[in-house]
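Please fill in the sequence for the structure shown.

STRUCTURE ENCODING:
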């Protein structure tokens, strides 16, 4: 049994290649703000100027907020900046609950932290807030914030169990895999060093089904509020992570092999989309390595897979390990360290293959529901040892569901050295196959953990060397000519954070969304803890936010507008 069977397993969920076309990669979408404009394909059409946004205008930023909400924000952000309080916040929460009793404690939380960072307890109670924000141009990305309270030991145990296959357990561990794609106990608790992201640990298939049910309820709730909402999902919630690890390794090795071949052809260091291998030279090298016979190799690069260019780029190359080519099962790649040829694809037991298939089925169920109720799915980006697989599976879903408009959104982390390559490949693939590209660009949430893991285990740090380099990567995306009014890229901030960014953007007509967590008070406490910690670590941003809040409060006081209702 092998990972190669994953790709055929995908088959029912993915359409065949659409014919190559020069049709626009991104088509028009219903406007969330100002009128939608033609996408990339009609780049020559006249676009209105990009609307100017003033992020320093406190009155505009808080136009949607009542005065008591501003006061609450100030109080909460101020408390979050108090180190002594933060250091003991867990004990304080415990003691307050004991002293006040559950009902009063819930009330206190709702008047403060919970009320500021969380939308409500369930799908029904969050609706007024969602409608209110929508009226001010800010949409919602729903996220059911309930988290399992696992101890670090439990988390490590679950991680080690769920990231190793039966074959590996029986046959002496995971040491055949690249170090980066093995589970390591010291990094088994994936919550460490991550402030914002929610972390899922695999328990069993029933638990994954229950996560899927939760996401389905989120989709329904989002569909009830608007016809252009989003919900966020994480693939680690939907299946066994071992599959993501192994598939990521396959994709990375295959890409590395391409770059090795490119270096042989004197093209080292070129951007992914500029690297084009000469087919004849490539066939020669592959035959010399003994990877396949010359006749077999000639079959790889037929006009069907390549067109008539006589060159192979990274997208052509990637398609060779698709179910469509039937080639993947024969593939071996040279190991740069040992010089040996190794099978690209790993072995899975029947049960593990079933687990993979179920993960794909769960994604498919979610995407169908999302399409039915008009909600878009954002697939979160996670750790680099899972991310190639997450991104690839998301792309398979995009092929199937982004035919008319973008329904599934992939996430690209700009702190990764290869972020620009990944985005350009996604955009180009969408253009070639004629489906709609949908992206969420973030800087990336796992910086400390990724760095520590790479240093400790001994592989290249996947993260840009500096914050400035990450910013430069972020701004490089502008080279893709994404125009705000095209509604190809959306802005997003967390509920209770950076309102001075979200609301001016929304009011200026940009598509902007708040990440909106919801859930019962006691069950979102871990989320609230992280919010408090994040605000303390992002002191500078929070300080600016507090200054603006003060300005607006004072302005309302001066002008006698303290009790004005947002309009
Ligand atoms: C709506 C929403 C959705 C999100 N979804 C995801 C997701 O799917 N996946 C994900 O990983 N994150 C996600 N995030 C988190 C995001 O990646 C950032 O971590 C978070 O938003 C803080 O970044 P910033 O750009 O707002 O803040 P800033 O303070 O401007 O930037 C901080 C970020 O810069 C980068 N950085 C900081 N120092 C360095 C350094 N020395 N070298 C290189 N890079 C550095 C890191 O990415 C760090 O998180 C999401 C955030 C939001 C608001």
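FILLED IN BY: designer on duty
SEQUENCE:
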């Amino acid at each position: 049994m092998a990972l190669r069977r994953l790709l055929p397993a995908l088959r029912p969920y993915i359409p065949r290649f659409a014919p190559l076309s020069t049709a626009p990669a991104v088509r028009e979408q219903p406007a969330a703000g100002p009128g939608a404009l033609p996408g990339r394909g009609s780049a020559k059409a006249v676009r209105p100027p990009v609307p100017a946004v003033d992020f320093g205008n406190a009155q505009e930023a808080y136009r949607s907020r009542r005065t008591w909400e501003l006061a609450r924000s100030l109080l909460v952000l101020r408390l979050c900046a108090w180190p002594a309080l933060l250091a003991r916040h867990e004990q304080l929460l415990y003691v307050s609950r004991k002293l006040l009793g559950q009902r009063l404690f819930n009330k206190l939380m709702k008047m403060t932290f919970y009320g500021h960072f969380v939308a409500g307890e369930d799908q029904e109670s969050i609706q007024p807030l969602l409608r209110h924000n929508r009226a001010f141009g800010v949409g919602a990305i729903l996220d059911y914030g309930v988290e399992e309270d696992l101890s670090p030991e439990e988390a490590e145990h679950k991680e080690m169990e769920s990231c190793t296959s039966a074959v590996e357990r029986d046959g002496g561990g995971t040491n055949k895999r690249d170090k980066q794609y093995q589970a390591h106990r010291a990094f088994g608790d994936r919550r460490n060093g991550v402030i914002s992201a929610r972390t899922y640990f695999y328990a069993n298939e029933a638990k994954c089904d229950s996560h899927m049910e939760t996401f389905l309820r989120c989709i329904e709730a989002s569909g009830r509020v608007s016809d252009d909402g989003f919900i966020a999902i994480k693939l680690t919630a939907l299946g066994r992570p071992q599959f993501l690890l192994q598939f990521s390794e396959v994709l990375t090795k295959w890409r590395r092999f391409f770059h090795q071949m490119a270096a042989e052809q004197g093209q080292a260091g070129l951007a992914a989309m500029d690297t084009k291998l000469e087919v004849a030279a490539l066939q020669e090298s592959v035959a010399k390595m003994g990877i396949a016979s010359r006749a077999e190799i000639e079959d790889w690069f037929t006009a069907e897979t390549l067109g008539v260019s006589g060159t192979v780029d990274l997208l052509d190359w990637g398609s060779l390990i698709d179910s469509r080519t039937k080639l993947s099962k024969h593939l071996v790649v040279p190991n740069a360290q040992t010089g040996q040829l190794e099978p690209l694809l790993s072995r899975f037991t029947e049960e593990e293959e079933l687990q993979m298939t179920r993960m794909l089925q769960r994604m498919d169920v979610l995407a169908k529901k999302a399409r039915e109720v008009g909600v878009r799915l954002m697939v979160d980006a996670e750790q680099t040892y899972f991310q190639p697989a997450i991104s690839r599976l998301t792309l398979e879903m995009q092929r199937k569901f982004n035919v008319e408009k973008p329904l599934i959104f992939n996430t690209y982390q700009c702190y990764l050295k290869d972020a620009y390559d990944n985005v350009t490949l996604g955009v180009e693939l969408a253009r070639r196959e004629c489906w709609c590209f949908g992206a969420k660009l973030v800087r990336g949430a796992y910086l400390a953990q990724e760095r520590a893991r790479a240093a400790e285990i001994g592989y290249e740090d996947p993260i840009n060397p500096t914050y400035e380099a990450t910013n430069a990567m972020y701004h490089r995306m502008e080279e893709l000519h994404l125009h705000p009014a095209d509604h190809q890229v959306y802005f997003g901030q967390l509920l209770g954070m950076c309102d001075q960014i979200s609301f001016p953007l929304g009011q200026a007509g940009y598509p902007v969304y708040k990440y909106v967590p919801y859930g019962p008070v006691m069950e979102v406490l871990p989320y609230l803890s992280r919010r408090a910690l994040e605000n303390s670590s992002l002191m500078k941003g929070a300080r600016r936010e507090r200054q603006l809040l003060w300005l607006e409060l004072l302005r309302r006081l001066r002008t006698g507008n303290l009790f004005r209702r947002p309009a």
